[in-house]
Amino acid sequence: MNAQTQASHKGKSYSKTAALLSVLFMGLGQMYNKQYWKGIAWAIFELIVIIFYIRPIMSGLHGLITLGETPQVRQRGRIVDPGDHSILLMAEGLMMLILLLAILGLYYLSVRDAYLVGKLREFGQKVPNFRETIRNVWENGYAYILITPTAICMLLLTVFPLVFTALIAFTNFSSPNYLPPRALVDWVGIEQFIRLFTMESWRGTFLGVFSWTIIWAVLSTLLVVFAGLFVAVVLSQKVVKYTKFWRNIYIIPWAVPGFVSILIFRNMYNGQFGVINQMLQSVGLNPIPWLSDPMWAKVAVLLTNLWLGFPFWMALFTAVLTTISKELYEAAEVDGATIVQQFRNITFPIVMVAAVPLMVFTFAFNFNQLTFIYLMTEGGPTNANYNYAGHTDILLSWIFKMTLDNGQYAIASAVALVVFLIIAGFAYFNLRNTKSMKGDV
């Protein structure tokens, strides 16, 4: 194409016209760009949306905003009118909102496609036909095609529950007065968060449970890490014989199913017939109220977690120790370094590079260790000053009790949202400042 033809094309605003037509109706811009099959495909898509999805989307969004308008009607114990179920309306509305955002995303892609093809026309370049467009999408968008199903699953199975839980925190969904379908649920804004941080009973419970959760997560992580490191370093010494035997012995707690070990320890800690107290009494010592005294209950859960958790770290550190060059230790011995100095200046810095990221994940895991706490103590012993929580309850077990046992869904969701923000912020900050995650050594 000669320069005069190119100049005439540049004088026309194909891109803006095509984009404007696609804004008016999907596919018109593509037809304007003489991509008729592509335009027909986009137009069919919008027609399907208009015919089949506009009404459900509008109904869902209305339900999400109002959370229902008709309460259930009963006469003489019979349900005359089932009414609206606020929580189901919220779930349906959230799904419709996600669908609407997806449609708007495709709508944007349609306008952008028409605009870019219009730019090609302005510069006098060839407009690809339908077959060339399909081939180009397959070649350049192959990676996106592969990850799209996984992204959709993540959206529905991870993002949707998180957003749904967060939305409940801004309602009054709770027992006994606001449980659908008998009663409607309303949006109350940040009322649950205000209750959580201003009402004395809720604030005291939250601060007490939160402080113990932090203590539990930190101590349980540090104990298993340094116990595993200690055992791994000791077994790596030349003076220790039968190292394979010792390692197999120490790995047994990790090989046994965790819930079995927890239930066994719970019986061992029993104040009346537990084997630990019987052993103490046999040597003339007083029995210890392991699970009935607040301090001893916390000691018991930490010791049990230590027993269950250190074998993993022992195995990890054993593998890391084998990668450290022996020449470093030989050079240190020549310089007169003691075993403690070798550990402090050689072993510890190297193993921590591999351990710190896993320590962050272990801290986050222990922060939310519902199964262990619930099987071990069920949050007990009871604390009369707490709302629905005991002395060993962590935030997640407290949420569990508030929801399944007491129906306090709204404030439990508020606590869950606070926990999520804390863990997400902590993990992001630590991983961002971890050398091994940056690729630095």
TrEMBL record:
Keywords: Cell membrane, Membrane, Sugar transport, Transmembrane, Transmembrane helix, Transport. InterPro entries: MalF_N, MetI-like, MetI-like_sf. Its main location: membrane. The chain crosses the membrane at residues 36-54, 87-109, 141-170, 209-236, 248-269, 299-325, 346-367, 409-429. PROSITE patterns: ABC_TM1. Gene3D superfamilies: MalF N-terminal region-like, MetI-like. The keyword Metal-binding does not apply. GO terms for biological process: maltodextrin transmembrane transport. One of its GO terms (cellular component) is maltose transport complex. It comes from the Bacteria. Residues 210-430 form the ABC transmembrane type-1 domain. GO terms for molecular function: ABC-type maltose transporter activity. It is a multi-pass membrane protein. It is found in: Cell membrane. PANTHER family: MALTOSE/MALTODEXTRIN TRANSPORT SYSTEM PERMEASE PROTEIN MALF (PTHR47314), MALTOSE_MALTODEXTRIN TRANSPORT SYSTEM PERMEASE PROTEIN MALF (PTHR47314:SF1). Part of the ABC transporter complex MalEFGK involved in maltose/maltodextrin import. Probably responsible for the translocation of the substrate across the membrane. Belongs to the binding-protein-dependent transport system permease family. MalFG subfamily. This is Maltose/maltodextrin transport system permease protein. It comes from Halalkalibacter okhensis.
